[in-house]
Amino acid sequence: MNIKELRTPCYIIDEDGLKANLAILDNLRHKTGCRILLAQKAFSIYQLYDLMGQYLDGTTASGLYEARLAHEYMPEGENHVFSPAYRPGEIDDILSLCNHIVFNSEKQLELYGARAAKSGASVGIRVNPECQTQEGHVIYDPCAPMSRLGITADNMPERLPDYVEGIHFHTLCEQNSDSLARTLDAVISRFGRYLDGSSGGSVKWINLGGGHHITRPDYDIALLEELIFKLKDKYHLEVYLEPGEAVALNCGTLLTTVLETGYNGGNIAVIDASAACHMPDVIEMPYRPPLKDSDLPGKKAYTYRLGGPSCLAGDIAGDYSFDRKLAAGDLLEFEDMAIYTMVKTNTFNGIALPDIYLKRGDEYSIIRQFGYEDFKSRL
Ligand SMILES: Cc1ncc(COP(=O)(O)O)c(C=O)c1O
Q1: CA nearest 10: which of 340, 243, 332?
Q2: Are residues 39 and 73 in the same domain?
Q3: CATH number of the domain encompassing residue 295
Q4: Which residue's C-alpha comes closest to atom 13 of ligand 1?
Q5: Is the pTM higher than 0.85?
Q6: Is 150 a pocket residue for ligand 1 (Cβ < 6 Å)?
């Protein structure tokens, strides 16, 4: 198949791009001895878990379903899980699948910790270093005031139960390693006594969470390596990273067709992809997704507001300029659409889910096609 033969809207995953990212992560693993897990929440394309498993140590899950997916499709990998609170009816199933489990509060630890340790899982707790390094996106900041994510130093138990083996934190979002350095200083100053074993437990590992944009060209990998070595030397801990974005950053596009053009105080184009249904972070975050062969509004000759086919007035991908006028039938390709897209789609307005293709070299093959039943079966 070539690109013109694909049914739109569709996501296209670029296998070469994915392999290039995985090679960077694999190199980091080999150089530092750290372990890297895929945060499935960003990119749960299990059809590629076999490939990803060749470069990564395993996966991390947000609950039972992701844990089960990893168990089925990356069975050789480590299977970690973290949830702010586990559902009582699911904990035994989770423990039958996962070899590492992270608890978010002392109460959760009291409820399930001993049972988890007895099942053979390595038990960790998530801490909140109360170190805000993000600007802007409060909804992505686990260190924001009144956060429910992680135990603050004030709420830590005086001594950890003997079975606690890990400390976990996750505070970053699309950040460079300088933010990690600041965060680690806060973690060490607030929780150092748990890391060095002077406050009980038998801590063997630390998980630095996700949000590390390791595969972005300007990411300072040397500093990350230095931080990992420092942790290993000082505390003799196994160091985990669990990136989602960095695994599939810039490894996918969303191909869409212009359905209709019009004018209302400015040029408008209706496309068959929906921001609300197919790229919800554009509205949630919000951000303007990159679009091939376009520029900022007014930079090129023809500027259009690109809107989706739903009833939502705000279903808008953004304003873009082009060298030529748009017309019905034109193909447009949004970039960096592999992460936090396919895992977040919905069928609002009965809008079809985009098919998913794999691009290998210049060849496209279908991973998954969706239809009416996928809409109906969710209701
Ligand atoms: C606990 C945890 N780990 C890892 C990640 C992955 O983060 P990212 O995709 O930004 O690397 C997240 C994202 O929300 C998270 O909450």
Answers
A1: 332
A2: yes
A3: 2.40.37.10
A4: 210
A5: yes
A6: no
Which DSSP helix (H) or strand (E) runs through 363?
strand 363-368
Atom number in ligand 1 closest to CA 213: 11
**pLDDT tens-digit profile of 294-333?**
999 999 999 999 999 999 999 999 999 999 999 999 999 9
Closest ligand 1 atom, residue 339 Cα? 9
Q: Are residues 106 and 222 in the same domain?
A: yes
Q: Which atom of ligand 1 is nearest to the CA of 142?
A: 16
Report pLDDT digits (tens) over 237-287: 999 999 999 999 999 999 999 999 999 999 999 999 999 999 999 999 899
Domain, as residue range, for 325: 3-11+252-337+345-376
Cα 166 to ligand 1 centroid, rounded to whole Å: 17
Q: Is the dihedral of CA 294, 299, 304, 306 positive or negative?
A: positive
37 in ligand 1 pocket by Cβ < 6 Å? no
Backbone angles phi, psi at 56, to 5 degrees: -115, 165
173 lines ligand 1 (CB under 6 A): yes
Angle at 265 between CA 262 and CA 271, to 5 degrees: 35
> 149 to each of 38, 66, 126, 137, 343, how far by Cα in Å?
20, 19, 8, 16, 21
CA of 372 to the centre of ligand 1 (A): 32
For residues 169 and 73, membership in a common domain is answered with yes
Give the chain's domain count: 2
Strand, coil or helix: what is 114?
helix
pLDDT < 70 stretches in the chain: none
- Provide the H-helix boundaries in the chain: 15-32, 49-53, 64-73, 91-97, 106-108, 114-118, 177-195, 221-235, 245-248, 275-278, 281-284, 372-376
Q: Is 209 in the pocket of ligand 1 (CB under 6 A)?
A: yes
Greatest pairwise CA separation for the chain in angstroms: 68
Q: Report the residue among 242, 285, 287 best suited for mutation to probe ligand 1: largest number of ligand atoms under 8 A from its CB.
A: 242
Of 283, 362, 351, the C-alpha closest to 317 is 283
**Ligand 1 and 210: CB distance under 6 A:** yes
Using a 6 Å cutoff on CB, does residue 244 contact ligand 1? yes
The last residue of a domain, from among 227, 248, 269? 248
Last residue of a domain, one of 199, 221, 248: 248
Q: Which amino acid is at 359?
A: K
Three-class DSSP category at 141:
coil
